[in-house]
């Protein structure tokens, strides 16, 4: 029972780490493209997101490969979710931009 709770907690932590990492990447791309200094945005974001994620993986694993593996599965699942959500957001935005250009 305790092991199941530990693995479930590791999975939740992986989902949260993935949401922070890939959600942060999406936010960085949106902000960085409109910035006067995009390289600073992308480099700073990369360092921050990677350090948070690596620290989270080390903390969650605590020397157990099973926890690390389950955390990684949650991380990948969060990636798939963020990709799906951002694609639908981009499709809606592209569609509204196309309608606006046709209205002119």
SSE arrangement:
Elements: H1 2-33, H2 38-61, H3 65-103
Helix pairs in contact: 1-2, 1-3, 2-3
Q: How many DSSP helices?
A: 3
Number of strands: 0
Low-pLDDT runs: none
- The sequence of SSEs as H and E is HHH
| N- to C-terminal distance | 63 Å
Radius of gyration: 18 Å
Mean pLDDT: 88
Helix and strand content put the structural class at mainly alpha
Number of domains: 1
Q: Write down the overall geometry.
A: flat
> Major sheet: size, sense and barrel closure?
none
Helix content: over 70%
Strand content: under 5%
Write a structural description.
The chain is flat. The longest helix has 39 residues, at 65-103. It has one domain (15-92). The chain has helices at residues 2-33, 38-61, 65-103. The chain is mostly helical.
What key phrases describe this protein's structure?
single chain; 104 residues; mainly alpha; 3 helices; 0% strand; flat
Short synopsis of the structure:
This protein is mainly alpha-helical and 104 residues long.
């Amino acid at each position: 029972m305790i092991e199941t709770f530990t693995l479930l907690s590791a999975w939740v932590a992986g989902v949260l780490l993935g949401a922070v990492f890939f959600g942060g990447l999406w936010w960085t791309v949106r902000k960085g493209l409109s910035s006067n200094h995009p390289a600073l945005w992308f480099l700073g974001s990369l360092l921050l997101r990677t350090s948070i994620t690596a620290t989270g993986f080390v903390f969650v694993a605590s020397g157990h490969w099973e926890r690390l593996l389950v955390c990684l599965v949650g991380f990948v699942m969060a990636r798939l979710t963020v990709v799906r959500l951002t694609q639908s957001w981009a499709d809606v935005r592209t569609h509204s931009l196309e309608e606006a250009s046709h209205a002119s």
